[in-house]
User: Fold these one by one.
Assistant:
Number 1:
Amino acid sequence: GAVVSQHPSWVICKSGTSVKIECRSLDFQATTMFWYRQFPKQSLMLMATSNEGSKATYEQGVEKDKFLINHASLTLSTLTVTSAHPEDSSFYICSARVYLDSYNEQFFGPGTRLTVL
Amino acid sequence: AQSVTQLGSHVSVSEGALVLLRCNYSSSVPPYLFWYVQYPNQGLQLLLKYTTGATLVKGINGFEAEFKKSETSFHLTKPSAHMSDAAEYFCAVTLNDYKLSFGAGTTVTVRA
Protein backbone atom coordinates (compact mmCIF):
# COMPACT_ATOMS: atom_id res chain seq x y z
CA GLY A 1 0.00 0.00 0.00
CA ALA A 2 0.82 3.74 0.03
CA VAL A 3 2.08 3.96 -3.53
CA VAL A 4 2.70 7.28 -5.23
CA SER A 5 3.16 7.52 -8.98
CA GLN A 6 4.46 10.30 -11.20
CA HIS A 7 3.93 10.86 -14.87
CA PRO A 8 5.90 11.25 -16.98
CA SER A 9 9.06 9.69 -15.62
CA TRP A 10 11.11 11.82 -17.95
CA VAL A 11 10.40 14.61 -20.39
CA ILE A 12 12.42 16.68 -22.83
CA CYS A 13 11.01 19.98 -24.03
CA LYS A 14 12.05 23.07 -25.91
CA SER A 15 12.78 26.33 -24.15
CA GLY A 16 9.65 28.45 -23.79
CA THR A 17 7.18 25.59 -23.67
CA SER A 18 5.18 24.42 -20.66
CA VAL A 19 5.36 20.98 -19.09
CA LYS A 20 2.85 19.32 -16.76
CA ILE A 21 3.88 16.67 -14.24
CA GLU A 22 1.28 14.54 -12.47
CA CYS A 23 1.53 13.08 -8.99
CA ARG A 24 -1.00 10.46 -7.96
CA SER A 25 -1.61 8.56 -4.75
CA LEU A 26 -2.74 5.18 -6.03
CA ASP A 27 -4.23 3.48 -2.99
CA PHE A 28 -4.91 6.24 -0.50
CA GLN A 29 -6.25 9.76 -0.32
CA ALA A 30 -3.92 12.62 0.40
CA THR A 31 -5.15 16.04 1.40
CA THR A 32 -1.57 17.26 1.28
CA MET A 33 1.11 16.64 -1.30
CA PHE A 34 4.56 18.16 -1.54
CA TRP A 35 6.72 19.05 -4.53
CA TYR A 36 10.50 18.88 -4.32
CA ARG A 37 13.27 19.73 -6.71
CA GLN A 38 16.61 17.95 -6.75
CA PHE A 39 19.69 19.04 -8.69
CA PRO A 40 22.39 16.48 -9.51
CA LYS A 41 24.32 15.29 -6.48
CA GLN A 42 22.27 17.54 -4.21
CA SER A 43 19.56 17.16 -1.63
CA LEU A 44 15.83 17.63 -2.04
CA MET A 45 14.55 21.18 -1.77
CA LEU A 46 10.92 21.71 -0.94
CA MET A 47 9.25 23.88 -3.56
CA ALA A 48 5.66 23.98 -2.41
CA THR A 49 2.93 22.37 -0.37
CA SER A 50 -0.18 21.38 -2.27
CA ASN A 51 -3.47 21.18 -0.39
CA GLU A 52 -6.58 19.70 -1.94
CA GLY A 53 -9.12 22.35 -2.77
CA SER A 54 -6.97 25.33 -1.90
CA LYS A 55 -4.04 27.32 -3.19
CA ALA A 56 -0.57 25.90 -2.89
CA THR A 57 1.90 27.34 -0.41
CA TYR A 58 5.24 28.12 -1.97
CA GLU A 59 8.61 28.19 -0.26
CA GLN A 60 10.63 31.37 -0.25
CA GLY A 61 12.33 31.97 -3.55
CA VAL A 62 10.05 29.73 -5.63
CA GLU A 63 8.16 31.59 -8.36
CA LYS A 64 4.51 30.68 -8.04
CA ASP A 65 3.69 32.00 -11.51
CA LYS A 66 6.33 29.79 -13.03
CA PHE A 67 5.58 26.62 -11.09
CA LEU A 68 1.80 26.24 -11.13
CA ILE A 69 0.38 23.67 -8.75
CA ASN A 70 -3.14 22.29 -8.85
CA HIS A 71 -4.46 19.79 -6.31
CA ALA A 72 -7.83 19.09 -7.87
CA SER A 73 -8.66 15.86 -6.07
CA LEU A 74 -7.59 13.81 -3.08
CA THR A 75 -5.43 11.61 -5.30
CA LEU A 76 -3.96 13.99 -7.85
CA SER A 77 -1.67 17.00 -7.77
CA THR A 78 -0.08 18.54 -10.84
CA LEU A 79 2.97 20.73 -11.28
CA THR A 80 3.17 22.80 -14.45
CA VAL A 81 6.47 24.40 -15.33
CA THR A 82 5.52 27.35 -17.47
CA SER A 83 7.81 28.89 -20.11
CA ALA A 84 10.51 26.41 -19.23
CA HIS A 85 14.16 27.36 -19.59
CA PRO A 86 17.32 25.26 -19.40
CA GLU A 87 17.88 26.28 -15.78
CA ASP A 88 14.58 24.57 -14.92
CA SER A 89 16.11 21.24 -15.90
CA SER A 90 16.04 19.12 -12.77
CA PHE A 91 14.61 16.06 -11.08
CA TYR A 92 11.17 16.79 -9.64
CA ILE A 93 9.83 14.56 -6.88
CA CYS A 94 6.43 14.65 -5.24
CA SER A 95 5.28 13.13 -1.99
CA ALA A 96 1.87 12.46 -0.51
CA ARG A 97 1.12 12.75 3.17
CA VAL A 98 -1.01 10.20 5.04
CA TYR A 99 -1.68 9.58 8.72
CA LEU A 100 -0.09 6.31 9.83
CA ASP A 101 1.04 4.95 13.18
CA SER A 102 0.16 8.15 15.06
CA TYR A 103 2.00 10.54 12.78
CA ASN A 104 1.86 11.87 9.24
CA GLU A 105 4.18 9.97 6.93
CA GLN A 106 5.22 11.11 3.47
CA PHE A 107 5.40 8.62 0.62
CA PHE A 108 7.50 9.66 -2.33
CA GLY A 109 6.93 9.28 -6.03
CA PRO A 110 9.64 7.93 -8.33
CA GLY A 111 10.48 11.38 -9.70
CA THR A 112 10.32 13.10 -13.08
CA ARG A 113 13.46 14.06 -14.96
CA LEU A 114 12.90 17.32 -16.86
CA THR A 115 15.37 18.41 -19.51
CA VAL A 116 14.82 21.75 -21.22
CA LEU A 117 16.73 22.29 -24.43
CA ALA B 1 13.74 26.12 12.49
CA GLN B 2 14.86 22.53 12.44
CA SER B 3 17.77 21.22 10.40
CA VAL B 4 20.02 18.22 10.00
CA THR B 5 23.69 17.94 9.18
CA GLN B 6 25.10 14.84 7.57
CA LEU B 7 28.80 14.42 8.26
CA GLY B 8 30.60 13.09 5.24
CA SER B 9 29.28 13.46 1.74
CA HIS B 10 30.79 10.17 0.66
CA VAL B 11 31.42 6.92 2.50
CA SER B 12 33.23 3.96 0.99
CA VAL B 13 33.11 0.57 2.69
CA SER B 14 34.15 -2.95 1.87
CA GLU B 15 31.50 -5.58 1.37
CA GLY B 16 30.81 -7.15 4.75
CA ALA B 17 32.12 -4.17 6.72
CA LEU B 18 30.20 -1.89 9.06
CA VAL B 19 28.29 0.98 7.49
CA LEU B 20 28.07 4.11 9.64
CA LEU B 21 26.37 7.28 8.40
CA ARG B 22 26.30 10.27 10.69
CA CYS B 23 23.45 12.69 11.19
CA ASN B 24 23.12 15.47 13.73
CA TYR B 25 20.01 17.55 14.17
CA SER B 26 19.20 20.97 15.44
CA SER B 27 15.87 21.39 17.16
CA SER B 28 14.37 23.25 20.07
CA VAL B 29 11.76 20.57 20.69
CA PRO B 30 11.75 16.78 20.32
CA PRO B 31 11.97 16.05 16.61
CA TYR B 32 10.79 13.29 14.37
CA LEU B 33 13.80 11.87 12.51
CA PHE B 34 14.04 9.80 9.36
CA TRP B 35 16.53 8.06 7.13
CA TYR B 36 15.73 7.63 3.45
CA VAL B 37 17.58 5.83 0.66
CA GLN B 38 17.60 6.91 -2.97
CA TYR B 39 18.81 4.79 -5.86
CA PRO B 40 19.81 6.52 -9.12
CA ASN B 41 16.93 8.23 -10.90
CA GLN B 42 14.42 7.04 -8.34
CA GLY B 43 12.39 8.54 -5.54
CA LEU B 44 13.03 8.14 -1.83
CA GLN B 45 12.36 5.02 0.18
CA LEU B 46 11.97 5.19 3.94
CA LEU B 47 14.56 3.10 5.79
CA LEU B 48 13.45 3.89 9.32
CA LYS B 49 12.00 6.59 11.52
CA TYR B 50 12.04 7.81 15.10
CA THR B 51 8.94 9.48 16.43
CA THR B 52 8.57 8.53 20.10
CA GLY B 53 9.37 5.59 22.35
CA ALA B 54 12.37 3.31 21.92
CA THR B 55 15.46 5.23 20.92
CA LEU B 56 17.00 2.33 19.00
CA VAL B 57 15.04 2.00 15.81
CA LYS B 58 15.28 -0.93 13.42
CA GLY B 59 14.47 -0.47 9.78
CA ILE B 60 14.45 -2.34 6.52
CA ASN B 61 17.42 -4.06 4.86
CA GLY B 62 19.23 -4.58 8.18
CA PHE B 63 19.66 -0.89 9.00
CA GLU B 64 19.17 0.61 12.42
CA ALA B 65 19.62 4.02 14.03
CA GLU B 66 19.77 5.32 17.57
CA PHE B 67 18.27 8.60 18.72
CA LYS B 68 20.63 10.23 21.22
CA LYS B 69 19.14 13.38 22.63
CA SER B 70 22.26 14.30 24.62
CA GLU B 71 24.31 14.22 21.44
CA THR B 72 21.54 15.49 19.12
CA SER B 73 22.40 12.61 16.83
CA PHE B 74 20.62 9.97 14.79
CA HIS B 75 23.38 7.91 13.19
CA LEU B 76 22.53 5.10 10.78
CA THR B 77 24.34 1.76 10.94
CA LYS B 78 24.37 -1.61 9.27
CA PRO B 79 26.67 -4.34 10.59
CA SER B 80 27.58 -5.86 7.24
CA ALA B 81 27.48 -3.95 3.96
CA HIS B 82 26.11 -5.53 0.83
CA MET B 83 26.71 -4.43 -2.74
CA SER B 84 23.05 -3.50 -3.00
CA ASP B 85 23.54 -0.88 -0.25
CA ALA B 86 25.33 1.40 -2.71
CA ALA B 87 23.04 4.42 -2.95
CA GLU B 88 22.42 7.94 -1.67
CA TYR B 89 21.21 8.26 1.91
CA PHE B 90 19.35 11.23 3.35
CA CYS B 91 18.66 12.10 6.95
CA ALA B 92 15.55 14.23 7.51
CA VAL B 93 13.79 15.95 10.37
CA THR B 94 10.39 17.40 11.05
CA LEU B 95 9.21 19.23 14.13
CA ASN B 96 5.60 19.83 13.38
CA ASP B 97 4.86 16.55 11.67
CA TYR B 98 4.50 18.42 8.44
CA LYS B 99 7.42 19.68 6.39
CA LEU B 100 10.56 17.61 6.07
CA SER B 101 14.02 19.17 6.08
CA PHE B 102 16.66 17.02 4.43
CA GLY B 103 20.37 16.78 4.98
CA ALA B 104 22.79 17.16 2.10
CA GLY B 105 23.00 13.42 1.60
CA THR B 106 25.75 10.80 1.85
CA THR B 107 26.79 8.65 -1.09
CA VAL B 108 27.68 5.11 -0.12
CA THR B 109 29.89 3.00 -2.32
CA VAL B 110 30.60 -0.63 -1.53
CA ARG B 111 33.87 -2.22 -2.60
CA ALA B 112 33.94 -5.89 -3.50
Number 2:
Amino acid sequence: SQQGEEDPQALSIQEGENATMNCSYKTSINNLQWYRQNSGRGLVHLILIRSNEREKHSGRLRVTLDTSKKSSSLLITASRAADTASYFCAHWNRDDKIIFGKGTRLHILP
Amino acid sequence: SQTIHQWPATLVQPVGSPLSLECTVEGTSNPNLYWYRQAAGRGLQLLFYSVGIGQISSEVPQNLSASRPQDRQFILSSKKLLLSDSGFYLCAWGAKQLGYGYTFGSGTRLTVV
Protein backbone atom coordinates (compact mmCIF):
# COMPACT_ATOMS: atom_id res chain seq x y z
CA SER A 1 0.00 0.00 0.00
CA GLN A 2 1.21 3.52 -0.73
CA GLN A 3 -0.72 4.91 2.20
CA GLY A 4 1.16 7.09 4.64
CA GLU A 5 0.90 6.68 8.36
CA GLU A 6 0.46 9.40 10.95
CA ASP A 7 1.70 9.05 14.47
CA PRO A 8 0.24 9.27 17.02
CA GLN A 9 -3.29 8.25 16.12
CA ALA A 10 -4.64 10.54 18.83
CA LEU A 11 -3.10 13.35 20.86
CA SER A 12 -4.47 15.42 23.75
CA ILE A 13 -2.59 18.45 25.00
CA GLN A 14 -3.27 21.52 27.09
CA GLU A 15 -4.08 24.77 25.38
CA GLY A 16 -0.92 26.76 24.85
CA GLU A 17 1.32 23.73 24.48
CA ASN A 18 2.94 22.67 21.24
CA ALA A 19 1.55 19.73 19.29
CA THR A 20 3.75 17.53 17.13
CA MET A 21 2.45 14.99 14.67
CA ASN A 22 4.54 12.71 12.53
CA CYS A 23 3.99 11.11 9.17
CA SER A 24 5.81 8.34 7.36
CA TYR A 25 5.39 7.38 3.73
CA LYS A 26 6.63 4.62 1.51
CA THR A 27 7.33 5.95 -1.98
CA SER A 28 9.40 8.71 -3.54
CA ILE A 29 7.57 12.00 -3.48
CA ASN A 30 7.71 15.40 -5.14
CA ASN A 31 5.97 17.11 -2.29
CA LEU A 32 4.10 16.35 0.90
CA GLN A 33 0.98 18.07 2.13
CA TRP A 34 -0.79 18.45 5.44
CA TYR A 35 -4.53 18.86 5.79
CA ARG A 36 -6.86 19.63 8.68
CA GLN A 37 -10.37 18.25 9.07
CA ASN A 38 -12.75 19.63 11.62
CA SER A 39 -15.39 17.18 12.78
CA GLY A 40 -17.95 16.53 10.07
CA ARG A 41 -16.35 18.90 7.61
CA GLY A 42 -14.22 18.69 4.49
CA LEU A 43 -10.45 18.74 4.57
CA VAL A 44 -8.59 22.01 4.40
CA HIS A 45 -5.15 22.21 2.84
CA LEU A 46 -2.70 23.63 5.36
CA ILE A 47 0.75 23.52 3.90
CA LEU A 48 2.79 21.87 1.16
CA ILE A 49 6.49 21.15 1.40
CA ARG A 50 8.51 20.20 -1.67
CA SER A 51 10.99 17.35 -1.72
CA ASN A 52 13.93 19.77 -1.96
CA GLU A 53 12.82 21.64 1.14
CA ARG A 54 13.64 20.57 4.68
CA GLU A 55 11.49 22.95 6.65
CA LYS A 56 8.62 25.30 6.01
CA HIS A 57 6.67 27.70 8.19
CA SER A 58 3.18 29.12 7.95
CA GLY A 59 1.95 31.10 10.92
CA ARG A 60 1.97 28.76 13.91
CA LEU A 61 2.66 25.76 11.69
CA ARG A 62 6.09 24.30 11.12
CA VAL A 63 6.58 21.36 8.79
CA THR A 64 9.77 19.38 8.35
CA LEU A 65 10.58 16.81 5.71
CA ASP A 66 13.28 14.15 5.78
CA THR A 67 13.26 12.36 2.45
CA SER A 68 16.02 9.98 3.52
CA LYS A 69 13.78 8.68 6.29
CA LYS A 70 10.58 9.17 4.30
CA SER A 71 9.07 11.12 7.15
CA SER A 72 7.56 14.48 7.93
CA SER A 73 6.41 16.28 11.04
CA LEU A 74 3.84 18.96 11.67
CA LEU A 75 4.34 21.22 14.67
CA ILE A 76 1.58 23.50 15.87
CA THR A 77 2.89 26.02 18.34
CA ALA A 78 0.90 27.70 21.11
CA SER A 79 -2.11 25.49 20.50
CA ARG A 80 -5.64 26.86 20.70
CA ALA A 81 -9.01 25.23 21.19
CA ALA A 82 -9.75 25.87 17.52
CA ASP A 83 -6.85 23.59 16.58
CA THR A 84 -8.89 20.59 17.74
CA ALA A 85 -9.27 18.55 14.56
CA SER A 86 -7.88 15.60 12.65
CA TYR A 87 -4.67 16.16 10.72
CA PHE A 88 -3.67 14.19 7.64
CA CYS A 89 -0.49 14.00 5.66
CA ALA A 90 -0.73 13.24 1.97
CA HIS A 91 1.27 13.14 -1.23
CA TRP A 92 0.68 12.89 -4.97
CA ASN A 93 1.41 9.53 -6.46
CA ARG A 94 2.53 8.91 -10.02
CA ASP A 95 -1.08 8.42 -11.16
CA ASP A 96 -2.21 11.96 -10.29
CA LYS A 97 -3.94 10.88 -7.11
CA ILE A 98 -3.31 12.04 -3.60
CA ILE A 99 -2.63 9.31 -1.06
CA PHE A 100 -3.75 10.11 2.48
CA GLY A 101 -2.66 8.72 5.80
CA LYS A 102 -5.20 7.71 8.43
CA GLY A 103 -4.80 10.92 10.36
CA THR A 104 -4.00 12.12 13.86
CA ARG A 105 -6.90 13.25 16.05
CA LEU A 106 -5.75 16.27 18.02
CA HIS A 107 -7.71 17.43 21.05
CA ILE A 108 -6.79 20.68 22.77
CA LEU A 109 -7.80 20.71 26.41
CA PRO A 110 -8.92 24.01 27.97
CA SER B 1 -10.28 31.90 -7.02
CA GLN B 2 -11.37 28.30 -7.27
CA THR B 3 -14.31 27.05 -5.27
CA ILE B 4 -15.96 23.69 -5.04
CA HIS B 5 -19.57 23.07 -4.14
CA GLN B 6 -20.97 19.80 -2.89
CA TRP B 7 -24.52 18.96 -1.90
CA PRO B 8 -26.51 17.92 -0.05
CA ALA B 9 -24.72 18.26 3.28
CA THR B 10 -26.63 15.41 4.89
CA LEU B 11 -28.77 12.65 3.50
CA VAL B 12 -30.70 9.78 5.03
CA GLN B 13 -31.79 7.17 2.54
CA PRO B 14 -33.44 3.74 2.88
CA VAL B 15 -31.69 0.60 1.74
CA GLY B 16 -32.41 -0.07 -1.91
CA SER B 17 -33.07 3.56 -2.83
CA PRO B 18 -31.06 5.42 -5.48
CA LEU B 19 -28.39 8.01 -4.77
CA SER B 20 -27.14 11.09 -6.55
CA LEU B 21 -24.51 13.40 -5.06
CA GLU B 22 -23.33 16.36 -7.05
CA CYS B 23 -20.12 18.32 -7.04
CA THR B 24 -19.31 21.39 -9.10
CA VAL B 25 -16.17 23.44 -9.40
CA GLU B 26 -15.84 27.14 -10.22
CA GLY B 27 -12.87 29.19 -11.24
CA THR B 28 -10.91 26.56 -13.11
CA SER B 29 -11.23 24.56 -16.27
CA ASN B 30 -10.47 20.93 -16.98
CA PRO B 31 -9.83 20.06 -13.34
CA ASN B 32 -9.02 16.59 -12.11
CA LEU B 33 -11.97 15.63 -9.93
CA TYR B 34 -12.10 13.02 -7.18
CA TRP B 35 -14.67 11.30 -4.97
CA TYR B 36 -13.53 10.01 -1.59
CA ARG B 37 -15.38 8.19 1.16
CA GLN B 38 -14.49 8.41 4.80
CA ALA B 39 -15.85 5.91 7.30
CA ALA B 40 -16.32 7.13 10.87
CA GLY B 41 -12.95 7.83 12.49
CA ARG B 42 -11.07 6.50 9.51
CA GLY B 43 -8.93 7.73 6.67
CA LEU B 44 -10.01 8.59 3.16
CA GLN B 45 -10.70 5.98 0.53
CA LEU B 46 -10.50 7.10 -3.09
CA LEU B 47 -13.58 5.92 -4.98
CA PHE B 48 -13.40 7.56 -8.40
CA TYR B 49 -11.40 10.14 -10.25
CA SER B 50 -11.81 11.90 -13.55
CA VAL B 51 -9.37 13.77 -15.74
CA GLY B 52 -11.98 14.99 -18.22
CA ILE B 53 -15.57 14.83 -19.47
CA GLY B 54 -16.75 11.25 -19.69
CA GLN B 55 -13.47 9.90 -18.32
CA ILE B 56 -13.97 8.00 -15.07
CA SER B 57 -11.55 5.72 -13.28
CA SER B 58 -12.80 3.47 -10.51
CA GLU B 59 -10.52 2.59 -7.67
CA VAL B 60 -12.53 -0.09 -5.91
CA PRO B 61 -15.35 -2.40 -7.02
CA GLN B 62 -18.51 -1.29 -5.27
CA ASN B 63 -22.14 -0.42 -5.48
CA LEU B 64 -21.42 3.10 -6.69
CA SER B 65 -20.75 4.77 -10.02
CA ALA B 66 -19.59 8.19 -11.11
CA SER B 67 -20.18 10.40 -14.11
CA ARG B 68 -18.77 13.64 -15.44
CA PRO B 69 -21.33 15.10 -17.82
CA GLN B 70 -19.70 18.56 -17.89
CA ASP B 71 -16.17 19.83 -17.39
CA ARG B 72 -16.80 21.10 -13.90
CA GLN B 73 -19.47 18.68 -12.73
CA PHE B 74 -18.88 15.34 -11.05
CA ILE B 75 -21.72 13.09 -9.91
CA LEU B 76 -21.68 10.09 -7.61
CA SER B 77 -24.58 7.68 -8.02
CA SER B 78 -26.01 4.40 -6.93
CA LYS B 79 -29.01 2.51 -8.25
CA LYS B 80 -29.63 0.66 -4.96
CA LEU B 81 -27.99 1.73 -1.74
CA LEU B 82 -26.62 -0.76 0.77
CA LEU B 83 -26.14 -0.24 4.48
CA SER B 84 -22.38 -0.37 3.88
CA ASP B 85 -22.62 2.73 1.66
CA SER B 86 -23.09 4.90 4.73
CA GLY B 87 -20.25 7.32 5.26
CA PHE B 88 -18.92 10.78 4.64
CA TYR B 89 -18.42 11.52 0.95
CA LEU B 90 -15.99 14.16 -0.16
CA CYS B 91 -15.44 15.67 -3.57
CA ALA B 92 -12.12 17.28 -4.39
CA TRP B 93 -10.32 18.85 -7.27
CA GLY B 94 -6.64 19.11 -7.83
CA ALA B 95 -3.95 19.45 -10.44
CA LYS B 96 -0.66 17.73 -9.81
CA GLN B 97 1.05 19.80 -12.48
CA LEU B 98 0.21 22.97 -10.56
CA GLY B 99 2.10 21.66 -7.57
CA TYR B 100 -0.78 22.32 -5.18
CA GLY B 101 -2.80 20.05 -2.99
CA TYR B 102 -6.47 19.29 -3.21
CA THR B 103 -9.36 21.63 -2.63
CA PHE B 104 -12.18 19.74 -0.95
CA GLY B 105 -15.91 20.27 -0.86
CA SER B 106 -17.66 20.41 2.48
CA GLY B 107 -18.79 16.79 2.28
CA THR B 108 -22.04 14.84 2.37
CA ARG B 109 -22.94 12.73 5.37
CA LEU B 110 -24.89 9.75 3.99
CA THR B 111 -26.75 7.45 6.34
CA VAL B 112 -28.41 4.41 4.82
CA VAL B 113 -31.16 3.03 7.04
